[in-house]
Design a protein that fits this description.
The protein folds into 2 domains: 75 residues, no CATH class; 87 residues. It is 36% helix and 15% strand. The protein is built from 5 helices and 8 strands, in the order αββαββααββαββ. The longest helix is centred in the middle third of the chain and has 27 residues.
Length: 185
């Protein structure tokens, strides 16, 4: 299953909603589990929240979301900042963004080259496509990319590897110099 690429504007909207909610932490209190008498409620830093029609699991989820959403947003933004992209578990191609900008190649052009509606994944550094299914498709796509001025291996690469369905494969930029030492900022 492909991890959805959440656009920055959607992440911003989620973050705005979270920032407008009552400050955390929120804690779910269920009668008989967390206290002896009274109704089920969510304790906040301001007023308690009582839900009508929610199951206990719904209430625990809502209370936990107050803490979970900011953590998930932070993790999503950190992943994006590192520039990593998900790669196809079958044959895939990953393209560096820098040469795309240099050659003024738009995403719409790449979608036409790959004959797809959207890439597998995108980051600040890469765009990933796949699965491509067989070597003939790869040869066709590589030829199209080269006609756009992109150089195989320097600007894009083919990824073929076997890994189990219970795992996912990501490609991140190499932030190290040739000698293996981390670059200085």
């Amino acid at each position: 299953m492909k991890a959805p690429q959440i656009p920055d504007q959607e992440l911003d909207a989620i973050e705005e909603r979270a920032s407008k909610a009552t400050a955390g932490p929120w804690r779910s209190f269920i009668e008989g589990r967390d206290h002896e008498s009274g109704s089920d409620f969510i304790q906040t830093s301001d007023q308690d929240i009582e839900l009508v029609g929610a199951t206990r699991d719904d209430q625990d989820f809502i209370a936990g979301a107050r803490q979970d959403i900011p953590k998930l947003l932070s993790a999503a933004r950190a992943q994006r900042a590192r520039g990593a992209v998900e790669a196809s578990p079958q044959i895939g191609l990953v393209i560096r963004r820098e040469p795309l900008e240099r050659h003024q190649i738009e995403l719409a052009t790449l979608l036409e080259v790959f004959e797809v509606a959207e890439p597998l994944d995108q980051s600040s550094e890469f765009i990933s496509f796949g699965p491509l299914f067989d070597d003939e498709v790869v040869k066709t796509v590589v030829a199209r990319l080269e006609r756009l001025g992109l150089a195989y291996f320097d600007d894009f690469c083919e990824l073929q590897c076997d890994f189990p369905a219970w795992g996912r494969f990501f490609l991140a930029p190499n932030n190290r110099q040739e000698d293996g030492k981390k670059e200085e900022d």
